[in-house]
């Protein structure tokens, strides 16, 4: 049960909830937490915080961590930060999720203070919470965390830097994209290289297109598509030969965004691929490229078995003919 909060009895409408939070039955206390949250009364926050930090049943603490996401006050954030070290992993995860939903950048300093915490889980959770806040002072601890021993911490640090769009970190991001032992870190770093349209990131992205893991190769194609650098056309064309259709699809999409200078034979070959989403992307990319040389390929695909592909072919044909 929670610790007693007798001063709450001074607010009569909260009294029934506090009494239920003193019940021996954890199920009753958990429902009381939900009902109390439904009131949306800020005076109830001390009770909910107490339930998170002191109730001996993990289901009550878990529910408290979830409902506290609705409030953004220093007291709530501090309680959720303390909840990251809860003995029950589900409660700690719930606290981390609630922190990731923060929108008030004024609360960011409270998270920055925990970036040096002894627990890797806490370090990763606070970096995750800082990500979308775009707090400039999070940059320095995020850069330091790029060398953290824990892969989750390094991945979250990369995302913080990506959201801050700090081009000063491109060298460090390129290093991780090329050599980090964890595939998810390499993938995140490869994506973050798109934070600035700078040709100096191209060697790293080309190397990522040859990564042993298809997820990194896919991310490299996505990033090149975002950058729209004409120099990347040859590398993306080569990626059309990748063994994974997911990589092919992103390479096709990127070439469309680049408005590639020529239509290669691979485009025609991909119209015979069994994955309809890939065939659809081929048609749309050809429409964006706008090369009349693609008309025979599109006309041959006009009777594709998939209606979405046929629609994309019609759109592409109209685009090319209108341009001509």
Could you explain the architecture of this structure?
The protein is built from 20 helices and no strands. It has helices at about 15-20, 25-40, 45-55, 60-65, 75-85, 90-100, 110, 120-130, 140-145, 150-165, 170-180, 185-190, 200-210, 215-225, 235-240, 245-260, 265-270, 275-290, 295-300, 305-324. Helix 3 (about 45-55) packs across helix 4, helix 5 packs antiparallel against helix 6 (about 90-100) and helix 14 packs parallel to helix 16. The mean pLDDT is about 95.
The counted number of beta strands is 0
- Structural shape: elongated
Low-pLDDT stretches are none
**Most strands sheet:** none
Could you spell the SSE succession in H and E letters?
HHHHHHHHHHHHHHHHHHHH
Taking all Cα atoms into account, the compactness measure Rg is 26 Å
Regarding CATH, which class of the domain at 1-99? Mainly Alpha
CATH architecture of the domain at 1-99: Alpha Horseshoe
Number of helices: 20
According to CATH, the fold-level topology of the domain at 1-99 is Leucine-rich Repeat Variant
Assign the CATH superfamily of the domain at 1-99: Leucine-rich Repeat Variant
Average pLDDT, all residues: 93
Strand content: under 5%
Give me the oligomer status: single chain
Helicity range = 55-70%
Structural class comes to: mainly alpha
Distance between the termini: 75 Å
């Amino acid at each position: 049960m929670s610790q007693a909060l007798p001063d709450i009895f001074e607010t009569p409408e909260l009294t029934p909830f506090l009494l239920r939070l003193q019940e021996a039955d954890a199920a009753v206390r958990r429902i009381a937490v939900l009902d109390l949250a439904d009131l949306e009364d800020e005076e109830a926050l001390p009770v909910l915080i107490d339930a998170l930090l002191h109730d001996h049943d993990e289901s009550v603490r878990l529910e408290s961590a979830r409902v506290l996401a609705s409030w953004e006050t220093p007291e709530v954030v501090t309680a959720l930060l303390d909840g990251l070290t809860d003995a029950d992993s589900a409660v700690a995860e719930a606290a981390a999720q609630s922190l990731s939903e923060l929108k008030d950048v004024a609360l960011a300093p409270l998270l920055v203070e925990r970036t040096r915490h002894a627990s890797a889980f806490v370090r990763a959770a606070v970096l995750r919470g800082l990500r979308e806040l775009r707090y400039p002072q999070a940059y320095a601890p995020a850069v330091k965390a790029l060398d953290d021993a824990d892969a989750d911490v390094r991945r979250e640090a990369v995302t913080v830097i990506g959201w801050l769009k700090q081009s000063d970190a491109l060298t460090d991001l390129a290093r991780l994209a090329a050599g980090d032992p964890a595939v998810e870190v390499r993938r995140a770093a490869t994506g973050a290289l798109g934070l600035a349209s700078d040709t100096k990131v191209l060697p790293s992205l080309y190397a990522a297109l040859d990564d042993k893991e298809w997820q990194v190769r896919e991310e490299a194609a996505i990033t090149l598509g975002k950058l729209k650098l004409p120099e990347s056309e040859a590398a993306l064309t080569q990626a059309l030969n990748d063994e994974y259709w997911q990589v092919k699809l992103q390479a096709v999409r990127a070439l469309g965004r680049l408005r590639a200078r020529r239509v290669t034979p691979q485009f025609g070959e991909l119209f015979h691929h069994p994955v309809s989403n890939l065939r659809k992307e081929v048609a749309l990319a050809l429409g964006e490229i706008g090369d009349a040389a693609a008309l025979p390929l599109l006309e041959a695909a006009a009777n594709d078995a998939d209606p979405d592909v046929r629609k994309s072919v019609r759109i592409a044909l109209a685009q090319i003919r209108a341009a001509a």
